[in-house]
Amino acid sequence: MLPPGNVSYWVFAVPRTGKPSQCGSRREPVEHTDRSDASTPRGRIDRADQRLGVLFLTVYLLEVAVSNVDDAVAAWSRGADRLELNAALELGGLTPPAGLVHAVRASVPIPIIAMIRPRAAGFTYSDREIDLMCDEIGRMGDAGVDGCAVGALHYDGSIHAGAVARFRSRIGTGTFVFHRAFDVSGYPSLALPRLIDLGVDRVMTSGGAMSAEMGIPRIRSLREIAGARLEILPAAGIGPHNAATVLADTGCRQLHGTFRMNGHDPAGPVASPEYVRLDEVLVADMRSVLDSFAAPRH
Questions:
Q1: How do strand 43-49 and strand 147-149 relate by DSSP bridges?
Q2: Phi, psi at residue 59, to the nearest 5°?
Q3: How far is 157 from 27, CA to CA, in rounded Å?
Q4: In the chain, domain spans
Q5: 21-30, 178-187, 192-201, range with greatest mean pLDDT
Q6: What is the mean pLDDT of residues 149-153?
Q7: Is residue 178 a contact partner of residue 150, using CB atoms and an 8 Å limit?
Q8: Measuring CA to CA, which of 94, 111, 226, 274 is 20 to 30 A from 204?
Q9: Best CATH choice for the domain 61-289 from the list 3.30.70.100, 3.60.140.10, 3.20.20.380, 3.10.20.30
Q10: Three-class secondary structure of residue 205 per DSSP
C-alpha cells in the first residue's frame, strides 16, 4: 500500500534497514521515514508500476572527501550522502585528528568514513606503523565514525593480508573501505577476491587509471566480479561533467570526489597563504547530476 501523501514524499520515505554500524561497535537498526532526516539517501524513481501501485527507488550516493569541520557541514548541506574525513588532502589524505572527528560527528548526521593513513607516499608499512593504524581505528570508533578507509600492501604490490585481517577485526561491525592502495596493487582482478575473502565491504578505485572515466572498463569488470559481495566506489577525476558517464558505463551507484579549490587565508604566511577547501558549487552540481541521472523507466 502506498504511504499517504504525494509521490515526492514516497521518494524520500523509502526506509533504510539501518544506519551503518559505528566503527568498532554495534548499533541497533533504525528506519528513516521522515523527509527531513538528512541521513535518508537521495535518489530517483527508477521504475513506476502503475498496475501494482509500487515505486522502485534507485539511489545514487555521493561521497565527499573533506578535511575540516566547515567543509563537512557545507558538503552535507549541498547534498553529500557520506563523508570521507581526512587530514592533509593535499598529501592524498592522512588520518584526521580525534578532535576534528568529534567536531564533525557532532555537526553532521550523515555517515562518516575516517581515513587511516599514518604518512604520505606509498602503502607499505612497518609492523609499528600497522600497530599504530590499528590503534587509530579504535580511536575513530570511539569518536563515532561509521567506518574506516584503510589499506596496506607488500613491497611487490600484493595485498598485505595479515594487516587487512587486523584492520577488519578492529573495525568490527563498521564499514571497511579499502582505499586507493588498490589501484597500485599488482593484479586488481586477483586482489579483489582476496579482499572479499578478508571481509572488506567497499573498494575505492579509479580502475588503475589516472581518472575513473579513463578506468571505466576495469571498474565495470571489477563490479561484475564483486557482484553483491562487495561495493565498488569509483573515484578520481569525477565531476559534474562526467559523473553520468561513469555511472552509466560502470553500473555503479555511488561516486567519490574531493571537489576541491584553493582557499586564501589573508593572515597566512606570505609564501603560502592558500589552503585546500571544498568547492560547494561543484558538490551541489554533482548532487543535481546524480538526482537527475537517467529518466524514470516504466
A1: unpaired
A2: -100, 130
A3: 35
A4: 7-57, 61-289
A5: 192-201
A6: 97
A7: yes
A8: 274
A9: 3.20.20.380
A10: strand
